[in-house]
From TrEMBL:
Keywords on record: Antibiotic resistance, Cell membrane, Cell shape, Cell wall biogenesis/degradation, Hydrolase, Membrane, Peptidoglycan synthesis, Transmembrane, Transmembrane helix
Pfam families according to UniProt: BacA
Protein topology in the membrane: Multi-pass membrane protein
Name of this chain's protein: Undecaprenyl-diphosphatase
Reaction equations catalysed: di-trans,octa-cis-undecaprenyl diphosphate + H2O = di-trans,octa-cis-undecaprenyl phosphate + phosphate + H(+)
Membrane-crossing residue ranges in chain numbering: 94-113, 119-140, 152-173, 193-214, 226-247, 253-273
Entry's EC annotation: 3.6.1.27
Described purpose of this protein according to its UniProt entry: Catalyzes the dephosphorylation of undecaprenyl diphosphate (UPP). Confers resistance to bacitracin.
One annotated GO biological process: peptidoglycan biosynthetic process
Family: Belongs to the UppP family.
Membrane as UniProt keyword: yes
């Protein structure tokens, strides 16, 4: 990989991992459109690590609070439970929701990853999923009431989002896009749907990175440590900036700019295919 490819792919991963436009699609497309050699599993691991570090650093306070509250649920007693605040109880529930809602994605990914890798990583599939799920995001963004507070959310709602997240295995769907769509459909505000989606990305990216790492270790690929290092740093910077500004702007601009982008991209890909 030359430096231009490294810079572009790392920035693409960092920006698109958390925007509702599909990072997997954008990482696949350059090789198909420009004839680039596949970046390899080592580089994919590196940019996933960068994105994971970014979301963990950005939400470090929320993660710390949830871990403490979650640990308290493992050793409950009446005195400790009585001393917990409503916020601490909610943090404990939220931690459990994120853990349990991530299980369907892990199971589906484990069972279907090889099939999808061999059959669905094409420009045509990406074009169709980009358009279909883009239209769904736009419809829900316009029609949903968005009046449910995150504190009033339920385990059932979290599991619905977790089941929807399974679809993100299909290139072009967008993990953040489908989880935000499900969150909006269940009545969350744009900001809360995005915030929950970002928190759910932590186990999702960890599982994806772990799977890629295992394939890298058991494979014969030569590791380009310099490319991996540059890619990881750039993915971290771009992902952190993306999370920060998206949460600031999402209630102001809504989801329509991303819907329009997806439709343009999808139609352009269909034209490229045919």
């Amino acid at each position: 990989m030359d430096i231009i490819e490294i810079l572009l792919l790392a920035l693409i991963q960092g920006l698109t991992e958390f925007l509702p436009i599909s990072s997997s699609a954008h990482l696949i497309l350059p090789s198909q459109l420009f004839g680039w050699v596949d970046q390899g599993q080592g580089f994919d691991v590196a940019v996933h690590v960068g994105s994971l570090l970014a979301v963990c650093l950005y939400f470090r306070k929320e993660i710390g609070d949830m871990l403490v509250a979650w640990y308290a649920t493992l050793t409950p007693n009446k005195e400790d439970d009585a001393a917990l605040t409503d916020e601490q109880r909610f943090n404990g529930r939220l931690a459990w929701w994120i853990i349990l809602a991530s299980i369907p994605l892990g199971l589906f990914g484990y069972l279907s990853a090889d099939f999808i890798e061999e059959n669905l990583r094409s420009a045509l599939v990406i074009a169709i999923t980009t358009i279909v799920f883009g239209l769904l995001l736009g419809f829900v963004d316009i029609k949903a009431k968005q009046n449910v507070a995150l504190e009033a959310f339920s385990f059932k709602g979290a599991m619905i989002i977790g089941l929807a997240q399974m679809l993100a295995i299909i290139p072009g769907t967008s993990r953040s896009g489908i989880t935000m769509t499900a969150g909006l459909m269940l009545g969350l505000s744009r900001e809360n749907a995005a915030r929950l989606s970002f928190l759910m990305s932590i186990p999702a990216i960890s599982m994806a990175g772990g799977y890629l790492t295992l394939k890298l270790i058991t494979g014969t690929e030569v590791v380009d440590w310099m490319s991996m290092g540059i890619g990881s740093v750039l993915a971290f910077i771009s992902a952190y900036a993306c999370i920060h500004y998206f949460l600031i702007l999402v209630n102001k601009i809504g989801m329509m700019p991303f819907v329009i982008y997806r439709l343009i991209l999808g139609v352009g890909l269909l034209a490229f295919v045919w």
